[in-house]
Amino acid sequence: MTRWMIIGASGMLGTELTARLRAEGRPVLAFGRQELDLRDTSAVRRLVTSHGPDVVVNCAAWNAVDEAETREDEALAVNGTGVRALAEACGRAGARMIQPSSDYVFDGTALDPYPEDARPCPVNAYGRTKLAGERAVLEVLPRGGYVVRTAWLYAATGHNFVRTMARLEREGAAPDVVGDQFGQPTWAGDLAARIVDLAGSGAPPGVHHATNSGHTSWYGLAREVFTLLGADPARVTEVSSKDFPRPASRPAYSVLGHDGRRAAGLPPMRHWREALRESRVLAAG
């Protein structure tokens, strides 16, 4: 039976993935931030060597997008250098590695969904550091490295847009939400299931996209959250991204295509509205 190792197991995706593997009775070792700091390359090597996993999934990342603009070296130490050290350790141990990545590796100027082989062109420091991690995995593990790009992740734990909108609704707020940035809300539980499927599918190594189907704007997502909570979606006001200047630029359109998934024989992930409704994230508060 495949032996799994999850790095960053206390985050949104790591929590969902660890829970799924354990529920299915699969051998899994889970390490949170307190157990392993990716910046400690010696510790990374020792951990992988000592446990000898078959599949390592790195859910650890520097995800503070705006802070990365002024602390790019620190973000790179986790998202780039740390990922390379983990890939090298996996190579020595003969383990496959799955590296979740981000839609932010693209500039957002496309008019159609980005295919897996589209040329990355990040517009912010966070995207550059995630791209560095992608390249490290693909260079170090050409026959056993998988990059899984996702987008707009949410879960019942951690800081995410869906939970924020749910809190604002409960507080009686009427939020202003950007309507000119488009992407694919993706439930971490569905992404975890797709990663497990990918590892057992025989799909070739390389870049894979994994998002819930369909797409919307942040404004559209906020309205859906309010609707599902039984609130009036008209309480959400659509505004432009120009009304909310932030340190890091965001891609205006970061919808990911799924041709590679179909070619690998993997079924499509369900529509984002269905996932949001059935995820029980809103019920969790």
What does this structure look like?
The two termini are 36 Å apart. The chain has ten helices and twelve strands. It has helices spanning 12-23, 41-51, 72-93, 125-140, 161-170, 188-199, 218-228, 259-263, 272-278, 281-284; strands at 4-7, 28-31, 55-58, 96-102, 145-150, 153-154, 176-178, 182-183, 186-187, 206-209, 216-217, 237-239. α5 (161-170) crosses α7 (218-228). The protein has 285 residues and is α/β, with parallel strands linked by helices.
Please outline the helices and strands.
Blueprint: E1 4-7, H1 12-23, E2 28-31, H2 41-51, E3 55-58, H3 72-93, E4 96-102, H4 125-140, E5 145-150, E6 153-154, H5 161-170, E7 176-178, E8 182-183, E9 186-187, H6 188-199, E10 206-209, E11 216-217, H7 218-228, E12 237-239, H8 259-263, H9 272-278, H10 281-284
Helix pairs in contact: 1-6, 2-3, 3-4, 5-7
